[in-house]
Amino acid sequence: MIEDSFKPLKLTLKELVDHYEGFLKECERKSPETRGTYQRALRDFIKWFPIDKRFQFRVRDVERYKRHLVEKKNLQNVSVATYMTALRRFAQYLIDIKLLDANPAKRVVGGRRPSRHSRTFLTYEELDQLLTSVDRSSVQGARDYAIIRSMLGCALSEHECLLADVGDIRQLDSGEWVMNVQGKGRKSKDEVASIPVEMREALDDYLNKRFGAEARVETAPLFASMSNRTQGGRMTSRGIREAVNRWLKSSGVKGDRDRRLTPFSLRHTAGLILVDSGATIEEVMRRMRIEWQPTAQLYFKIRGKLGTNANAVPIEEN
Question: What pLDDT was estimated at residue 306?
């Protein structure tokens, strides 16, 4: 039985609030929007906790809280998903501080997931149009091209790009080139992404232009700012978005899709490329650092491959 693997954790309201505050402190490195979302969602959980009086971080407790959200608060699916994600992250924090052994919230689906991504994708023709439009003669152009290639080759997000350092790129004894990545919600660069040839060549060209004959500084940010005020410093998420958006617009591929075709669309496009190459659902999850299987399944659904190499349960929609 599923419940048997979850050891109950009984907390007083004061202990719960103390851990909630500790969790929010750990979230300070996240964006203000993400931290605010978790704070608001968990505040509701804390109000419900003393009313329920039975919550001990078991699967059935999480399911009871979800019923409260749906039946008592009458929340829409997308809001239920947000509240459940916050509880899932909080439970992971309790695991990190050795209070919980496993995450019960991972066993409970939090609302129906979207049947398609909110952002659109690039076709192979549009990809060629985008890549050939980038002027790589300058350091900035070479950097922007390397960012685009990294989003396509390693499915890097803006956040992962801005945290990357020069020294994160390394060659294994097997000859394969990889990159240490700090994924979403991670505290360290504990994930490794395989670097395809096109991405490595783009990175080499950019770093050669940037450092010239000087030795590469391994602790330096991989994608450095070119603005006068922050020259050589770490780019911001906004800076990375603007750099990629500039080429999406100037290449002509963005067209009238200004809100739906964004830099994050490149990561989504990378997912489709993996599916087209014959990757399994497990490979897509590993290479894109996706923890929630239905998210990865969306790429297979778009290509009409659910039930073949997706090899997974029916997709959950949000």
Answer: 66
Tell me: the pLDDT tens digits for 49-63? 999 999 999 999 999
Higher-confidence residue of 114 and 75: namely 75
What is the 3-state secondary structure of the chain?
Answer: CHHHHCCCCCCCHHHHHHHHHHHHHHHHHCCHHHHHHHHHHHHHHHHHHHHHCCCCCCHHHHHHHHHHHHHHCCCCHHHHHHHHHHHHHHHHHHHHCCCCCCCHHHHCCCCCCCCCCCCCCCCHHHHHHHHHHCCCCCHHHHHHHHHHHHHHHCCCCHHHHHHCEHHHEEECCCCCEEEEECCCCCCCCCEEEECCHHHHHHHHHHHHHHHCCCCCCCCCECCECCCCCCCCCECCHHHHHHHHHHHHHHCCCCCCCCCCCCCHHHHHHHHHHHHHCCCCHHHHHHHHCCCCHHHHHHHHHHCCCCCCCCCCCCCCCC
Could you tell me the domains of the chain? 2-107 (1.10.150.130), 124-302 (1.10.443.10)
User: How much is the pLDDT for 106?
Assistant: 85
pTM for this model (two decimals):
0.64
